Amino acid sequence: MLANLGSLALTPWIYVIVGMSVLLDVFLPVLPSGVLVIAAATAAAGTRTAAGAVSATNGASADVPDILGLLLCAATASCLGDLVAYRLAWRGGDRLDRAISRSRRLTAAQARLGNALTRGGGLLVLVARFAPAGRSVVSLGAGAMHRKAAEFLPWSALAGLAWAGYSVGLGYFGGQWLGATWLGAAVSALALFAAGAGAAYALRRPSTRRTPPPAAGAAPAAQQ
Questions:
Q1: Rounded to whole angstroms, how far apart are CA atoms 168 and 74?
Q2: Does residue 217 fall inside a structural domain?
Q3: Which residues contact 217 (CB under 8 A, 6 or more apart)?
Q4: pTM exceeding the 0.70 threshold for the entire prediction
Q5: By CB neighbour count within 10 A (0-12 exposed, 13-18 middle, 19+ buried), where does 4 fall?
């Protein structure tokens, strides 16, 4: 796979494949878009190293993949996918609300999302981008609740850029340190899964709410 990606990384097709995978991931969370981004960055790191050696020997520059281009491609596709899901959920909000109401977890996640966006706490959107299926719940939930685009899209863009930067960075530096092999890609993928597990744990943690003190002059509760 890495060998095939290494050859594809020298062509514009790698950006098309990565972009489509990341864009569709919001509708099909089973797609391994993160692993694909990491594998492409790992292959790009190995291709760049090999091309650099050839250039140093022959004195010619080689056409090597652009890591920055890969990052921007993944981040843009992530934001566009969120926008499409947001708009579709906006139009079909009633049906989606009925589907969400059947699940306690989705209902609780929708409520937390609404409160966070209302308070300006879009950090939830950023954290959910790393959690499995968190991107889907957040994007569809924001659209179904008819949240303002100004409340959601800037955080979606930031989340996509952070996720893409993390994934591309893992693949690239893993390929530099461990080589463009299955070991480098596997270690980088494990680091991505670890971040996803941490994000999922953070989203599942119940928010601590302090009980407000009784008002002055209020009568104490009667003892049973």
A1: 9
A2: no
A3: none
A4: yes
A5: exposed
* Domain membership of residue 101 as a residue range: 2-204
What's the CA angle centered on 135, arms 15 and 181, to 5 degrees?
Answer: 45
In a domain, 163, yes or no: yes
Number of structural domains the chain divides into: 1
- Which pLDDT tens digits describe the chain residue by residue (224 residues)? 555 555 666 677 888 999 999 999 888 877 788 888 988 888 777 665 544 443 434 443 444 458 888 999 999 999 999 999 999 888 876 666 666 667 676 666 666 666 656 555 678 888 889 988 888 888 888 888 788 888 889 999 999 999 999 999 998 888 788 766 677 677 888 888 888 888 878 766 655 444 444 444 444 444 43
31 DSSP 8-state letter: S
Please, are residues 78 and 133 in contact by the beta-carbon 8 Å criterion? Answer: no
Residue 74 domain flag: yes
Encoded tokens for 117: 């966006």
Specify if 54 maps to a domain: yes
